[in-house]
Automatic annotation (TrEMBL), chain A:
Signal sequence, renumbered to the chain: none
Xref: InterPro entries: DUF112_TM
Membrane-spanning segments: 35-53, 109-132, 169-188, 200-220, 253-277, 315-342, 354-380, 386-404, 464-486
Protein name: Tripartite tricarboxylate transporter permease
Species whose genome carries this gene: Paracoccus limosus
One Pfam assignment: TctA
Domain DUF112: residue ranges: 20-438
Record key words, sorted: Membrane, Transmembrane, Transmembrane helix
Claim: Transmembrane helix is one of the keywords in the record: yes
UniProtKB/TrEMBL annotation, chain B:
Species whose genome carries this gene: Paracoccus limosus
InterPro entries found in the cross-reference section: BUG (IPR005064), Bug_dom1 (IPR042100)
Keyword Signal: yes
SUPFAM superfamilies for this protein: Periplasmic binding protein-like II
Name of the molecule in the record: Tripartite tricarboxylate transporter substrate binding protein BugD
UniProtKB/TrEMBL annotation, chain C:
UniProt key word Cell membrane: no
Organismal lineage: Bacteria, Pseudomonadati, Pseudomonadota, Alphaproteobacteria, Rhodobacterales
Name the UniProt record assigns to this protein: Tripartite tricarboxylate transporter TctB family protein
Repressor recorded as keyword: no
TM region positions: 12-30, 45-65, 77-94, 124-147
């Protein structure tokens, strides 16, 4: 069989002693830097990329892939332990993961994240190997109209991220959309909401927003009353999931893997939706939706798997089209070009060793990640026993470095302070940050694709309904809307006094 | 913050000290600012030459990516830096076009910098979706003129290489196509591959592999002569459209007031780097070639910048598109 | 906490609603110079204007629903935290180029450490030194990030 031969070749490339070593170094470095608060996968890769330039092309890319997985996992670790996500995907993990940590189940959350990611990584690696070319053909059918409909679906789903008032969640989404508009309009070059500050011409920095509304707001909350000694329960009895918890995570992991794999293929930003979509699905089908937002296991297992699966399959457009699906992939392309490999549709046939070597190393990297991180969980959890007043100045120092290193833009640091204040204000007013974040991420995509679809259809709005894929997605959005609001409306009468988060 | 006056005094002192010690330059690490994000084509060019120049200068040149506002943020930062030869800027044609595209620029591109030299000029190719009807470039020009209002022209955003080339193309053909801007080359190319848009004109860095893979159709190059990479592909000039000549040229700058000896020293180092076979090979993979030694000089870059600012001003003004 | 004899209302939600309306008004006011265009050929102001309007309505709804409901305690406010945590990244941003990475990070950590009443001056100093040394080793020496360790304001 061709596939087996190819995979065998891939593994023989990836499992040379040197390449294994580079993969391991990559995973370790990625984890160590990515675990620093405020430093997400993009910043980690940008920092570590120059190290790989000296290596052979295959080794360099294998090491970079290792860094990527390590950074992703490291980012989830900080999201769970201190509520400081460095990527949009780990913002979802932070919702329930951090609550688990507060209940003394940090170890469980971390191992569930690791195991779910590993499973998802394994499945989607094989998906990449088996179906990369045909999947690419499907992905190319997605034009502006389809992406617009997809973003609408994502926004509708985002309401499920909130565990309090739906109305306020909607308001947060819209506020996020508005914040996402800050910057130069790509169609006319007009600056919008930038207050005349050129440094914001490319929009507000996502890391600044995430660190501010999640992490810094949380630090401020913890500083409200210091006589209340413990932020975290120290009574951590178990690091690994019980058999029961294992059984509980199977469903979410499987569904998350499916959702993530599908969305990751779309080069126009589908992977962004992966963890959000998984969270929504889990909350919707859970028998205990009220647990979400308060430390639901499925709220960590599903999104983490979806995220990793999406991260994996987002290599498909990169490897088969030479087109980056996200900033991380753009960095990978840069690394390839510097190595003298210009990614394009011919990489598979012209550089089979490279193509299959990378695919094999994806799986090896995931395996190493699990092997490396399961023992490390004990160590991460111990970090929580560091007194909080020692921990948070370190967090502030690290996130200052992290935010600055993304684009060397000092205005991003001022944005951190602003969003910290905004996040704290929001928490005082019982508004949740996750819908805001999703709105912020989707806003530019939503508007960009809406306007582009209208240009391409010469101003005919029926384009969203006459294009079949777009129509199907819109119908799905409508279905979700009904599912979300119907119970709300029914419940309305019982909740005259206690509609907000109980 | 702190004491601005003190800071200014120190900066002046540093400048004097820098001028005095131009002979033994460089004595410490040099920063090369790239006004775009890491991993992009400009960043690639910068890292290629920075590595070779480091070897010659005996001091490390580190690349710092200061992205934003079409490269004007990074350029502005270098314009304000101390002219001591330890802060360089590598910027492409955007240095010339931003003079017109940005009406509120914080610096004057013509006076805020000194020059080191030209690095490379990346050629561009007019491409279309793979099932685009015309068979050759002559057919293309006729077809586009006739169906202009039905055709879409993609670009990677205002001020991008594809936007500049697109403006020239429309002006040369005297046809107004429906332009579809994207955020960067990646998404623009995706939609062209998927047949969502019709035409684009972009650097070989982005188009070569797709043309070779047969996923898009190439019509003509925008160069003076045919490219060794595609010997069968005509130039726009030879097929009757001489106005469509454009390349994405890259230059290295220092802040205005840098000692001429330092610029000269950097220029020599640049020339050596460009003569390196490794650089030639890496650039050939990207579909471009290093500039010959006589262009990697302060005088050549200065002349180029002046000429290009003058060339693009009417083009941009008549298109009426501004980036701020 | 409904001690007052007035009609019950949820002050938190009322404040949230009013603030959302204020934010909407601010964004709406900022869009006034942007070209709206038509729904067929949307200008840069179209989408923001739509969203500002939507946010205003949502804010109004939140505020309206807060009336006739019991209040929930607002809780304490971390004034000390706000005073020291938020300026820390701002200070870093203002000085990282001028003073350089090492001194900027040192002072940033020191400022942030003041946010807790439980942090004594000496341990704070020690922590700042440790964080600065480790970060410099990791980011500047280890990863070779293009930070200037000591900036031009120090004459180095």
């Amino acid at each position: 069989m061709d596939l087996l031969n190819n995979l065998a070749m891939g593994f023989s490339v990836a499992s040379s002693l040197a390449n294994l070593l580079f993969c391991l170094i990559g995973v370790i470095l990625g984890t160590l830097i990515g675990v620093l608060p405020g430093i997400g996968a993009t910043a980690t890769i940008a920092m570590l990329m120059p190290i790989t330039f000296q290596l052979e092309p295959v080794s360099s890319l294998i090491m970079l892939a290792g860094i990527y997985y390590g950074a992703q996992y490291g980012g989830s670790t900080t999201a769970i332990l201190i509520n400081m996500p460095g990527e949009s995907s780990s913002a979802v993990t932070a919702i329930d993961g951090y609550q688990m940590a507060r209940k003394g189940k940090a170890g469980t959350a971390l191992s569930v994240a690791a195991l779910g990611s590993f499973f998802a990584g394994t499945v989607s690696t094989f998906l990449v190997a088996l179906f990369a070319p045909p999947l690419t053909a499907v992905a190319l059918k997605f034009g502006a109209a389809e992406y617009f409909s997809l973003m609408v679906l994502g926004l509708v789903m985002s309401v499920a991220l909130a565990h309090g008032s739906v109305l306020k969640a909607l308001a947060m989404v819209v506020l996020g959309l508005l914040l996402g508009i800050v910057g130069t309009d790509i169609y006319t070059g007009t600056p919008r909401f930038t207050m005349g500050i050129t440094e914001y011409a490319d929009g507000l920095n996502f890391v600044a927003l995430a660190v501010g509304v999640f992490g810094i707001a949380e630090i401020l909350r913890n500083l409200e009353d210091e006589s209340d000694r413990e932020v975290m329960t120290k009574n951590i009895n178990r690091l690994f999931p019980t058999r029961e918890e294992f059984r509980e995570m199977i469903g979410p992991v499987l569904r998350g893997t499916g959702i993530g794999s599908v969305l990751g293929i779309l080069p126009g930003g589908g992977a962004i939706l992966a963890s959000f979509a998984s969270y929504t699905v889990e909350k919707k089908i859970s028998k205990h939706p009220e647990e979400f937002g308060k430390g639901a296991l499925a709220g960590v297992a599903g999104p983490e798997s979806a995220n990793n699966a999406g991260a994996q399959t987002s290599f498909i457009p990169l490897l088969t089209l030479g087109i980056p699906a996200n900033p991380v992939m753009a960095l990978m392309i840069g690394a390839m070009i510097i190595q003298g490999i210009v990614p394009g549709p011919n990489v598979v046939s012209e550089q089979p060793q490279l193509f299959w070597g990378i695919i094999a190393s994806m799986w090896i990297g995931n395996l190493m990640l699990v092997v490396l991180n399961l023992p490390l969980i004990g160590l991460w959890v111990k970090l929580l026993s560091v007194p909080y007043y020692v921990l948070f100045p370190i967090i502030m120092a690290m996130c200052s470095i992290g935010v600055y290193s993304v684009a060397s833009n000092t205005f991003d640091l001022y944005a951190v302070a602003f969003f910290g204040l905004l996040g704290y204000l929001m928490s005082k007013l019982r508004c949740e940050p996750a819908p805001l974040l999703l709105g912020f991420v989707l806003g530019p995509l939503l508007e960009e694709n809406l306007r582009r679809a209208m240009i391409l259809s010469r101003g005919d709005p029926s384009t969203f309904l006459t294009r079949p894929i777009s129509l199907v997605i819109l119908v799905m959005a409508l279905a979700v809307l009904v599912l979300v609001f119907l119970p709300q409306i029914r419940k309305r009468r019982d909740e005259v006094f206690t509609e907000s988060d109980a | 913050m702190a004491h601005p006056k003190l800071a200014a005094a120190l900066a002046v002192a540093l400048t004097l000290a820098g001028a005095a010690s131009a002979q033994d330059y460089p004595t410490r690490q040099i920063t090369m600012v790239v006004p775009f994000s890491a991993g992009g084509p400009t960043d690639t060019v910068a890292r290629l030459v920075a590595e070779r120049m480091s070897g010659d200068l005996g001091q490390q040149i580190v690349v710092e990516n200061v992205g934003g506002a079409g490269g004007t943020l990074g350029a502005g930062q270098v314009a304000k830096a101390a002219p001591d030869g330890y802060t360089l800027l590598l910027q492409h044609i955007g240095m010339a076009t931003s003079a017109t595209l940005y009406r509120k620029l914080a610096y004057d591109p013509l006076t805020a910098f000194d020059y080191v030299g030209l690095v490379t000029e990346v050629p561009m190719v007019v491409v279309a979706r793979k099932d685009f009807e015309p068979a050759d470039f002559k057919g293309f020009t006729a077809y586009v003129k006739e169906n202009a209002d039905k055709l879409t022209l993609a670009n990677a955003g205002i001020g991008s290489a594809s936007h500049l080339c697109g403006m020239l193309l429309m002006q040369a053909l005297q046809a107004q196509l429906v332009t579809v801007p994207y955020k960067g080359t990646g998404p623009a190319m995706t939609d062209l591959l998927g047949g969502q848009t019709d035409i684009m004109c972009d650097q070989t860095t982005n188009t070569t592999q797709q043309i070779k893979g047969g996923t898009i159709k190439a019509y003509a190059t925008t160069t003076a002569e045919r490219l060794p990479l595609f010997p069968d592909l005509p130039t726009a000039t030879e097929d009757g459209l001489p106005a469509l000549q454009v390349g994405i040229w890259h230059g290295i700058y220092t802040p205005a007031g840098t000692a001429p000896e330092i610029n000269e020293r950097l220029s020599q180092s640049l020339q050596k780097a460009l003569a390196d076979p490794g650089v030639t090979k890496a650039m050939a993979d990207l579909g471009t070639a290093p500039e010959p030694a006589e262009n990697a000089t302060p005088a050549a870059l200065k002349a180029k910048l002046g000429a290009e600012i003058a060339r693009w001003q009417p083009v941009i003004e008549s298109a009426g598109v501004y980036a701020d | 906490m409904s001690t007052r004899p007035t009609k019950p209302r949820d002050t938190t939600d009322l404040a949230a609603g009013l603030l959302l309306m204020a934010a909407a008004a601010f964004f709406g006011w900022q869009t006034r110079e942007l070209e709206i265009g038509s729904s067929l050929r949307m200008g840069p102001g179209y989408f923001p204007m739509l969203l500002s309007g939507l946010l205003f309505i949502l804010g109004a709804l939140v505020a309206l629903k807060s009336l006739g409901r019991e209040d929930e305690p607002f809780g304490r406010i971390a004034w000390r935290g706000i005073l020291f945590i938020l300026p820390a990244p701002v200070f870093f941003g203002l000085t990282v180029r001028g003073l350089g990475f090492v001194p900027a990070l040192f002072v940033t950590t020191l400022i942030a450490a003041q946010a807790s009443v439980r942090m004594r001056p000496l341990p704070a100093l020690g922590l700042a030194v440790a964080v600065t040394i480790l970060s410099t080793l990791i980011f500047s020496y280890g990863l070779g990030l293009p930070f200037r360790r000591f900036g031009p304001w120090l004459g180095m």
